[in-house]
Amino acid sequence: MDNAFAYHHVGIAVRDLQNATSAYEKLFGYKLISGPFDDPIQNVSVCFMSRGNGDPVIELVAPLGPNSPIDRLLKKGGGAYHLCYEVKDLSKAIDELQAQGSLLLSEPAPAVAFEMRKVAWLMTDEANLLVELVQA
């Protein structure tokens, strides 16, 4: 792979962003670092949290309205469901993952949480992992 896949965050499906943010602060010492953002394009509301000690950044993702893409996950209880990688060339990264059997679930689209940089969603073949790619 000649396109670096830089770890960005793990996404966690939650029912209510405010309650979840409070819980992550109280239980684990996370602090809000970005957001919340309402993204009508993705039909979700998100925020990013970190503990600032080198731990991975987490993205809390709640439905913005009916028929949100995470509704199905929440019916199963929610929780961690995707990894996000930042890439220099989004099209090239998509091609690389598709060449290894990954399925493109959504064409690149702007995302409010990333200052309208484009994101794409893929499902890996062998690892059965939902992956979000964000343009650097």
Can you give keywords for this protein?
single chain, 136 residues, alpha+beta, 2,3-Dihydroxybiphenyl 1,2-Dioxygenase, domain 1, 3 helices, 8 strands
Your description of this structure?
This protein is of the alpha+beta class and 136 residues long. It has one domain: Roll (2,3-Dihydroxybiphenyl 1,2-Dioxygenase, domain 1), CATH 3.10.180.10. It has 3 helices and 8 strands; from the N terminus they run βαβββαβαβββ. It has an 8-stranded mixed beta sheet with strand order 2-3-4-1-5-8-7-6. A hairpin with a 7-residue loop joins β3 and β4. The radius of gyration is 15 Å and the shape is globular. The model has no long low-confidence stretch (mean pLDDT 93).
Describe the structure concisely for a colleague.
The chain is an alpha+beta fold and 136 residues long. 20% of the residues lie in helices and 43% in strands.
Total separate domains: 1
* CATH superfamily label: 2,3-Dihydroxybiphenyl 1,2-Dioxygenase, domain 1
Element order: H for helix, E for strand:
EHEEEHEHEEE
Strand order of the largest sheet: 2-3-4-1-5-8-7-6
